[in-house]
């Protein structure tokens, strides 16, 4: 095991795949010579050269369009969209072109590409650089959607995303970049579509994604220590494909479900999971499904305001107590 | 980086008339396009084609010129007005008419429709129905060819209206800075859907006048002259293939009909329509071939052969059934499925 930061794990995952497959190329704004504005891709251009790791203009349509064109003609491109908020200026390419073209053309082309983006709040960047938009992607047929919570999963899931023959949107939670964790040495690949049970429990299932996973774990510690409540915590990791098997097994056991999402309230991924559980496990439940989300607002900038509105461990504890009582 | 070297202007200046075999192929391609589009119109009138369709009657010389000049493994990207561009790459006419009619024999088995024709194995890399979207995609195919050192070129066709959308500008800059082997072909048919392009564009020539902003040579040609389009295509393809980067070529042409099935095109002055009908690329080219001494028998043989081809295509498409319903839920993913959960 090596100790890597979430940030370093990005470059480690890309480098692992670029070493084994020379059709893997990587483009984005400031990603090459500068190593990324979040320093996630330092050293890649030095190792793989200017043809494989290239800086682009600030032109998200060009970046994503070129990524699609390269993917349909023999390459496995990785693109970076610096902040996931910027998907809004190239969403046509993602939704109308990349996601649909395989289906519309009766399977004539595949799109083995990855689009990485820094996603989510907690960095005090204000409403246009802090959104959590993985739920936008989840709503579109034809996109796989991944959001890791740990350095090991950043490397392993990114490697799997690059190897995957379909388009993957890879959401890195920007407030996690400085966090550290053990990452297996040597080749490390984590299959897409597998949720991870991080903590076993019997009274309630808490499911979370990306930065919300640590908060869910903290909440579980508090619930056990202060209230004698045993919470099972699941890191969903991948929204598409969605590991309903792992989630359903847990909810069947605990009979209670709390989802913890960064998204604004309406149509977050937790709403879809809640709906699935309500449809298929309704008679196993001992209480309502509870969603902990950000309110239905754009994120404010000031630290006090941002912290107040995002889901916290305390809010998760409060939600569970209300449910279990 | 390639600049305004006048490479294409010189090629146009020094171009000679293509050889007879090439010219007959240009005529064959134009007749195939003309007859297929006319048949598509007839099938609409019989309600055998649903939805919408955007015919390129009058613009055949562009597709024929480039289609004849391209290498088999080159890539082409076109718009929703893309039946001709797809056909000239070698796609099945039955497949195209079948797709328009929503039949199993369709090129996409009815999953795409008129606006999304693709025949990837022949390099026809798709028809794109969001204005400008395919311009960066074509740049990406060119980037791939450049990276793989395959010598392939991507050709991207679009209309005059596309020159005012952001993707046009992002793509040209991107192609220019990376010296990509891509040829951008602006088919200026004078109308952005229902609106004269001049009323909504800051420059008189929507393609050519923008070229200098990207360090490219301005090229403006008569898009109804199949010989000229072919010669310019050969030069631009050669330039791209030898590493001299992208081109932006504006070809002036005219749509004989309206924008789409719903549009009779009444906003166009009668005298303008009449003037352009006199410049019909198929009729004028036929006369030119005769004037240049090509045997009428050779021309009539092509006409008979293409008429028989379109009849056979229609017949096969009419007799093809609807697509099997189960294909509506396959091929979202590369494994053939549409599964999103376990």
Give the secondary structure arrangement, pairings included:
The complex is a heterodimer of chains A (325) and B (342).
Chain A lengths: L1 E4 H15 L3 E5 L15 H5 L4 E3 L4 H12 L4 E8 L7 H14 L9 E6 L14 H5 L5 E3 L4 H13 L4 E6 L6 E4 L12 E4 L4 E5 L2 H17 L3 E5 L2 E3 L3 H11 L2 E8 L4 H13 L8 E5 L8 H7 L3 H12 L1
Parallel strand pairs in A: 2-3, 2-4, 4-5, 5-7, 6-7, 10-11, 10-13, 13-14
Antiparallel strand pairs in A: 1-8, 6-12, 9-11
Helix pairs in contact in A: 1-6, 3-4, 7-11, 8-9
Chain B lengths: L6 H8 L5 H26 L14 H10 L5 E5 L3 H5 L5 H8 L23 E5 L5 H15 L5 E6 L6 H12 L4 E7 L2 E2 L2 E2 L22 E4 L3 H16 L5 E6 L17 H8 L3 H11 L4 H24 L23
Parallel strand pairs in B: 1-2, 1-3, 3-4, 4-8, 7-8
Antiparallel strand pairs in B: 5-6
Helix pairs in contact in B: 1-8, 2-3, 2-10, 2-11, 3-8, 5-11, 6-7
What does this 3D model show about the protein?
The complex is a heterodimer of chains A (325) and B (342). Chain A has helices spanning 6-20, 44-48, 60-71, 91-104, 134-138, 151-163, 211-227, 244-254, 269-281, 303-309, 313-324, and strands at residues 2-5, 24-28, 53-55, 76-83, 114-119, 144-146, 168-173, 180-183, 196-199, 204-208, 231-235, 238-240, 257-264, 290-294. By secondary structure, chain A is an alpha/beta fold. Chain A has 2 domains: 2-183, Thiamin diphosphate (ThDP)-binding fold, Pyr/PP domains (Rossmann fold); 196-324, Rossmann fold. The longest helix of chain A is centred in the C-terminal third of the chain and has 17 residues, at 211-227. Chain A is globular and about 60 Å long. By secondary structure, chain B is of the alpha/beta class. Chain B has one domain (7-329): 3-Layer(aba) Sandwich (Rossmann fold), CATH 3.40.50. Chain B has helices spanning 7-14, 20-45, 60-69, 83-87, 93-100, 134-148, 166-177, 226-241, 270-277, 281-291, 296-319, and strands at 75-79, 124-128, 154-159, 182-188, 191-192, 195-196, 219-222, 247-252. In chain B, strand 3 (154-159), helix 7 (166-177) and strand 4 (182-188) form a beta-alpha-beta unit. In chain B, helix 3 (60-69) crosses helix 8. Chains A and B meet through helix 3 and helix 4 of A and strand 2, helix 6 and helix 7 of B.
């Amino acid at each position: 095991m090596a100790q890597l930061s979430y940030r370093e794990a990005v470059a480690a995952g890309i480098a692992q795949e670029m070493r084994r497959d020379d059709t893997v190329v990587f483009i984005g704004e400031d990603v090459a010579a500068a190593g990324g504005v979040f320093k996630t891709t330092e050293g890649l251009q030095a190792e793989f050269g200017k043809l494989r790791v290239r800086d682009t203009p600030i032109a998200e349509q060009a970046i994503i369009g070129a990524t699609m064109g390269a993917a349909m003609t023999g390459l496995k491109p990785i693109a970076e969209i610096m902040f996931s908020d910027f998907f809004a200026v190239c969403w046509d390419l993602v939704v109308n072109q990349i996601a649909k073209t395989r289906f519309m053309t009766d399977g004539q082309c595949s799109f083995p590409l990855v689009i990485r983006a820094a996603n989510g709040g907690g960095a005090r960047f204000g409403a246009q650089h802090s959104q959590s938009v993985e739920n936008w992607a989840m709503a579109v047929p034809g996109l796989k959607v991944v959001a890791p919570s740990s350095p090991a999963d950043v490397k392993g899931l990114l490697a799997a995303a690059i190897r995957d023959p379909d388009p993957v949107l890879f959401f890195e939670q920007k407030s996690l970049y400085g966090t550290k964790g053990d990452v297996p040495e040597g080749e490390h690949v984590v299959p897409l579509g597998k949720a991870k049970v991080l903590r076993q429990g019997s009274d309630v299932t808490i499911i979370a994604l990306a930065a919300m996973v640590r908060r869910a774990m903290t909440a579980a510690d508090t619930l056990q220590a202060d209230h004698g409540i045993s919470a099972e915590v699941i890191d969903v990791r991948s929204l598409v494909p969605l590991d309903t098997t792992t989630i359903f097994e847990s909810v069947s056991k605990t009979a209670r479900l709390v989802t913890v999402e960064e998204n604004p309230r309406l149509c977050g991924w937790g709403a879809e999971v809640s709906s699935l559980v309500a449809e298929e496990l309704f008679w196993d439940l001992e209480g309502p499904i509870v969603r902990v989300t950000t309110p239905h607002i754009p994120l404010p900038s000031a630290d006090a305001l941002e912290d107040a509105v995002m889901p916290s461990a305390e809010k998760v504890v409060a939600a569970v107590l209300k449910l279990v009582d | 980086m390639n600049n305004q070297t006048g490479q294409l202007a010189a090629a146009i200046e020094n171009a000679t008339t293509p050889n007879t075999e090439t010219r007959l192929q240009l005529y064959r391609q134009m007749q195939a396009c003309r007859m297929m589009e006319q048949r598509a119109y007839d099938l609409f009138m019989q309600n055998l084609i649903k939805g919408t369709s955007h015919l390129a009657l009058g613009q055949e010389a562009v597709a024929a010129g480039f289609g004849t000049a391209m290498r088999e493994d080159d890539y082409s990207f076109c718009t929703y007005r893309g039946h001709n561009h797809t056909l000239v790459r070698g796609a099945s006419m039955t497949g195209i008419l079948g797709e328009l009619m929503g039949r199993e024999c369709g090129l996409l088995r009815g999953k795409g429709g008129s606006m999304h024709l693709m025949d990837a194995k022949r390099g026809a890399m798709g028809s794109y129905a969001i204005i400008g979207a395919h311009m960066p995609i074509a740049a990406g195919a060119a980037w791939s060819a450049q990276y793989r050192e395959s010598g392939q070129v991507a050709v991207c066709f679009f209309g005059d209206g596309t020159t005012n959308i952001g993707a046009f500008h992002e793509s040209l800059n991107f192609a220019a800075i990376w010296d990509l082997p891509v040829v951008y072909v602006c088919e200026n048919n004078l109308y952005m859907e229902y609106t004269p392009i001049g009323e909504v564009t800051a420059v008189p020539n929507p393609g050519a006048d923008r070229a200098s902003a990207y360090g490219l040579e301005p090229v403006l040609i008569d898009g109804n002259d199949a010989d000229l389009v072919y010669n310019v295509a050969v030069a631009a393809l050669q330039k791209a293939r030898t590493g001299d980067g992208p081109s932006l070529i504006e070809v002036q042409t005219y749509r004989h009909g309206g924008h789409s099935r719903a549009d009779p095109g009444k906003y166009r002055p009668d005298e303008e329509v009449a003037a352009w009908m006199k410049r019909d690329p198929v009729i004028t080219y036929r006369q030119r071939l005769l004037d240049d001494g090509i045997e009428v028998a050779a021309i009539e043989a092509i006409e008979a052969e293409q008429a028989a081809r379109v009849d056979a295509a229609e017949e096969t498409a009419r007799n093809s059934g609807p697509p099997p319903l189960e294909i509506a839920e396959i091929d979202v993913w590369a494994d053939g499925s549409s599964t999103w959960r376990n």
